[in-house]
Amino acid sequence: MPQSDSSQSPPDRRPLIALAWVWVGAPLAYGLYELVQKATQLFTG
Amino acid sequence: MSPPVAPPGWSRWLVPPAALSVHLSIGQAYAWSVFKPPLESALGLSGTQSALPFQLGIVMLGLSAAFGGTLVERNGPRWAMTVALICFSSGLLLSALGAATEQYWLIVLGYGFVGGIGLGIGYISPVSTLIKWFPDRPGMATGIAIMGFGGGALIASPWSAQMLDSFGSDSSGIALAFLVHGLSYAVFMLLGVLLVRVPRSERPVQSAPSAFEGPQVSARNAVRTPQFWCLWVVLCMNVTAGIGILEKAAPMITDFFKETSTPVSVSAAAGFVALLSAANMAGRIGWSSTSDLIGRKNIYRVYLGVGAVMYGLIALFGDSSKPLFILCALVILSFYGGGFATIPAYLKDLFGAYQVGAIHGRLLTAWSTAGVLGPLIVNWIADRQEDAGKSGSALYGLSFVIMIGLLVVGFVANELVRPVNARHHIPAPREAADAAVRQQPESA
């Protein structure tokens, strides 16, 4: 009995890619936000 | 442990976040200064004593990267990331125990020695794998990871400070902060351990050349080539020049404009330091990606040549124009970050992808050397100039001239880089088989 095409196609990795990038991107965004807050002191301080 | 091979359909875009999860964590080391004042007051330490865990950590980073590189190549990135996770997190947990029991030697041992091994193995863990996944853009790929090391300090610095504010700056508060750090980083780094895969074939992208095309040189042979030592000098000089600014950024900008009509306040100087961190990070991804387009030798010509010009501009006109001083310092720091991030791709160009992680580990001894050399030059000269009655920008003039000289030495070393002599190459599989046949006795 021939196998269906769907059983041979690799799983969709896009949700995993999105999750992985959010995992590392969220703390990095927090760090960058804090950095920008501090860096503005050069022009206002 | 055999390296985890990617299943069919695995995306190479899962590998950079795996690398980032490790580099963003171990980059916490650069935020050690947040723990210094509380430790000094809670345990009665001097400034020199409280710097010990960080200093030992950086020494261990260099040593473990240099001596552990071959193991990382042999056992693969998952093994390396697991070792990095265990060492870095258990180093923080040991530090928590040390702070709770007020045994400072445990903090030095935990954070400095055990954690430092995690720093070194973690730093080189994704390099070789990223180059194999991105043979078409190795500069960008390693730039993303090594940018994470700079980004780790940006995250940890405010996060650790807020934690110490909440838990208190006494020994039990510090212990709790170390404990939360250790557990959080273990969970965060786990993503890298779970996600990292080596490509199934040597050509993960069909349109790109294989990472294994061209000459391949083992780590043992690489250190015997003049190319390795030229790049060692290039990295050492570039890092020394960057540290020359980074080490004394806040007092430097204050001193430069102290006697002008627009002096720099303490908070503005802190803002300048933050801006330098941003330039350092942006340079890692920006310049390293640019090297994929203009070539590695050319980008180091820019780092070293334009860097020397920037130092010259600061020395000549820096105290007359604040925007010029800031702009030149930002460019120098972006080259500092770019130099770190581009070196793995330069190594891959010269020695191939075969043992590039191990070769990179050995080259990081240049970083350790520069870490001592840069601060030593700037601090020693500034102290001598102050003793001689000088002030303001005059404190740094001689340091800048020395930095220009070092950058010129690096520039010349970069110009001397040539393709590696074929006698250092490892034989291709067919050549090796032919050689084995030739060595068989005639009668066999």
From TrEMBL, chain A:
<keyword id="KW-0812">Transmembrane</keyword>
<keyword id="KW-0472">Membrane</keyword>
<protein>
    <submittedName>
        <fullName>Uncharacterized protein</fullName>
    </submittedName>
</protein>
<feature type="transmembrane region" description="Helical">
    <location>
        <begin position="16"/>
        <end position="33"/>
    </location>
</feature>
<keyword id="KW-1133">Transmembrane helix</keyword>
From TrEMBL, chain B:
<dbReference type="InterPro" id="IPR050327">
    <property type="entry name" value="Proton-linked_MCT"/>
</dbReference>
<feature type="transmembrane region" description="Helical">
    <location>
        <begin position="139"/>
        <end position="161"/>
    </location>
</feature>
<feature type="transmembrane region" description="Helical">
    <location>
        <begin position="228"/>
        <end position="246"/>
    </location>
</feature>
<keyword id="KW-1133">Transmembrane helix</keyword>
<feature type="transmembrane region" description="Helical">
    <location>
        <begin position="266"/>
        <end position="287"/>
    </location>
</feature>
<feature type="transmembrane region" description="Helical">
    <location>
        <begin position="359"/>
        <end position="382"/>
    </location>
</feature>
<feature type="transmembrane region" description="Helical">
    <location>
        <begin position="394"/>
        <end position="413"/>
    </location>
</feature>
<keyword id="KW-0472">Membrane</keyword>
<feature type="transmembrane region" description="Helical">
    <location>
        <begin position="79"/>
        <end position="98"/>
    </location>
</feature>
<feature type="transmembrane region" description="Helical">
    <location>
        <begin position="104"/>
        <end position="127"/>
    </location>
</feature>
<feature type="domain" description="Major facilitator superfamily (MFS) profile">
    <location>
        <begin position="1"/>
        <end position="417"/>
    </location>
</feature>
<dbReference type="InterPro" id="IPR011701">
    <property type="entry name" value="MFS"/>
</dbReference>
<dbReference type="Pfam" id="PF07690">
    <property type="entry name" value="MFS_1"/>
</dbReference>
<keyword id="KW-0812">Transmembrane</keyword>
<dbReference type="InterPro" id="IPR036259">
    <property type="entry name" value="MFS_trans_sf"/>
</dbReference>
<dbReference type="InterPro" id="IPR020846">
    <property type="entry name" value="MFS_dom"/>
</dbReference>
<feature type="transmembrane region" description="Helical">
    <location>
        <begin position="324"/>
        <end position="347"/>
    </location>
</feature>
<feature type="transmembrane region" description="Helical">
    <location>
        <begin position="52"/>
        <end position="72"/>
    </location>
</feature>
<protein>
    <submittedName>
        <fullName>MFS transporter</fullName>
    </submittedName>
</protein>
<feature type="transmembrane region" description="Helical">
    <location>
        <begin position="173"/>
        <end position="196"/>
    </location>
</feature>
<dbReference type="GO" id="GO:0022857">
    <property type="term" value="F:transmembrane transporter activity"/>
</dbReference>
<feature type="transmembrane region" description="Helical">
    <location>
        <begin position="12"/>
        <end position="32"/>
    </location>
</feature>
